[in-house]
Structures are given as structure tokens and as C-alpha cells.
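> run fold rRNA adenine N(6)-methyltransferase
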Amino acid sequence: MVSIFRHWRKRLQPVLFGPGALRFAASTRGDYATTSLTGSMRLHPGRKKKAFKADCTRIWGNLFDYTYAQYKDNHTPVAIRCQKHGMFWMKPRDHIQRRLGCPKCGSLFVPGSLQERAAMMLTTGPTPALGQHVLRSHKLALEITAVALKGAAGQASWVAEVGVGAGALTAALLQSPACAGVVGFELDERILSQALEKGGVIRRYHPICRDIPEAARTLRREAWEDHLTGSLTRCFVFKGDFLACRAVPSRCRIAVGNIPYKISTAVVTKLLCQEPLMERVVLMVQAEFARKLLAKPGSVKFGRVSALVQALCSNAQFAIPGLLTPDVFSPPPRVDSAVVLLELHQVPLRHRGVEVPAAALDQLLRLLLDTRGPTRGEGLEARLTEVAERVAAQSLPDSWRLAMAKAGVDPAKPPLAMATEEFVALAAELRNLGFASDAVRRDLD
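> ok
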């Protein structure tokens, strides 16, 4: 029997595994991204699977942990750069398994590009210390663009983008006829260079890249126009920290962005407190923060940013149904994300004829609903007494109890149980006494 087996193995081996052998394809099993096996590799699928994981690690810069990666992780298109024809979209599976390249020239970039591609991605990827997760889904970028520019078909609108990243959302905005132009802000110069270099995603729109002006901390919205004139370009990109700016340009009535999770509250607050108010804000944030942002009064998640949204926005909701899975970002975060839509009132807040700026209301909410602050049973008067003793530099007016009485708010009512109208009324009465003056608001900025 053994001799018969050896006889047939000797005869069939050249047919199955020789130079002219028929090629049969098989796939690895399990949760790994699939890869075709041919020839003798069919006898060692585990070895090929290990090699495939190594290729993915080198090419895609450790974007995925392939021990747990699902099928879709390797089938979501990402932006790839061709040396001759610029950026195009391709699935990682097509590049690694099928060895496909540029759709115009078929180039696999450069010979032996595994290590070079890995080096390029690792040196131009987002800086980990900044907590960035760059959007890499073209389909999602188009969906966000449609939400942000909805109703703007009659007249093109300028858009402010917080966190340009690799330029996927910027390019989607500039492709829309409803977008007159984009003014972007990006802190990480390393990832920004990928979008601005030759062949980059937004390079064909001839962007003008500048450093954020030194006077940005005091520039009002109208004053930004001096830094956006003298060019016909539709794309301005400012390098630096967006939070260091007092305002966004007045031509931008819409704001979008993919916000690093650790600065979500600061960015949302700054966008909501613009003077004059923005028209619409569409942001990608952590799912947990999105629920907090949209929380209603009386909810467990209700807090300072929730109260500010309730007071300033006529419509606050999830812009795209469902949650965004980590695979649409690079590198994938460990949590789910969501896209929120905030449409602001275009009439300033008022109480008994007194205008209440958004910054003044935010200052009051900081004192009443600070995370270090109230327990749910602490009354308003007790809270304000504690604040007056603790915060000396930004202390309340001496007659703050009179303002509380004029606003008609129950002193024993906990701040977390107060209605939006009560916050506005109290802010208006305190403002009559000099609370949240221009000097205080400059300190907050």
C-alpha cells in the first residue's frame, strides 16, 4: 500500500505543483481577512495566513489587529497614492491579495513597495499623542457632506472644518457644488502633508496653507476676512491649534469636523459660542459623548454641554442613523463613534429684552454644572454660595441672590433639574449686574 501511494504521488506531483500545474484557489478560514492559496501553499494555510498578516502589518502600518479583524476590515476602501496619477480609492484586500494598483497605469507604486509603503504610512500617519483617528471612508465623507450642505443648493456656502487630517472630508466637501469653499484647521503637520503633497487628496483644488495668525486669539469673525483675501482658491488650510482661535471666519456659516475625543467638549463649546452664531454644525464624536451632547434635562447624562445645546439649538440629533464602527478610521479607535447634527437658533437668546450671549450662558453653566460640581441633591443657592467662595477671580456679583429672585428660580432647586429657560433667565439677570463681561469672556477664550 505504501509503495502504491509513493508511486501515484511521484506521478501527480508535477501535475499539481509543477511549473505548468493547474492553479486551484482556496481561502484561509477563521476571522482573518481572506487570501488566495495556490500551489504548495495549499498544504500550509497557516503559514500563508501568517505571511498575510505580516504583509498587512507592513503595508497598512498596524492599522488592524488581524487576530480579531473581521472580513469587512479588509474590504473598506482607503485612499492610496499613485506617483503619476494622484490619489485613488482601493480595498486593502485588492492591493495585497490581487496585487492591483492604480486604475489608470496599473502601477503597484514602486518595486518592492511593501517596506516603502509601510514607511510612508508610519511617517505621515496621525500623531498618537494628539488622539487623532483619521477618516478613511469615502462613502461616509459623502454622507456627512450631504448632511452639512443640505438646503444649501440655491446658494453655495463656505464651510469651516476642524481637523482636516488626511483630507478625505475636505475633498468630499469641495466636490459638492453646494460648497463655495473650505477653511480648514489642522494641528498635526505630519498628517496634513499627506493631503497637501503632490498627488494628495486635496492637492488638485490648489489649497493655500498658512500658519494660524498670531492675533487669532483676539480675532473676531469679521476680522478673519483679511487673512482670506487676495486669492481665488476655494480651500484655505491653517496649521495650528483651533482652540487657540477666538472665532472662525464670518464667511463660514457651517462647521464640520472629525474631532479628537479628548477635546470634544472644548471644540463643541467654541463652535456653539460664535458671534454671530453658526447655522449648522456636523461633527464626528465618540458615541458616548454624542449621547451626552443630545441628553435631555433630567437625564442621567445631562450636563453643561447638554444644557448649552438645549438652549442654543433648534434641532439636535444623530445626523447618520446608527453608530460608526472603528474600521472607518485610521487607526481604528477602541470605541464606536457617531455623527451629530446641531442646527442653531438664528435669533440671540433674550430674557425680558436683555440679550444673553452664548458665552455668558456658557460661563454660568461652567459654574453650575462643572463636572467637579453639583451632586444631584445640591440646591442652586448652595451651589452658588460654594462657587462664590471657591472662584475668587471670576466671582459672582455681590447681589447674586437678588438676580436669582428676579429670575424666579427656586433657591432649593438643584441645577441639574433646572429648565433651559431658567438658565437663560438667571444669566440675563446676572449679566445686568456685570456678570460675564467682555474681559471675563476674553479670559475664557
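The chain has 15 helices and 16 strands.
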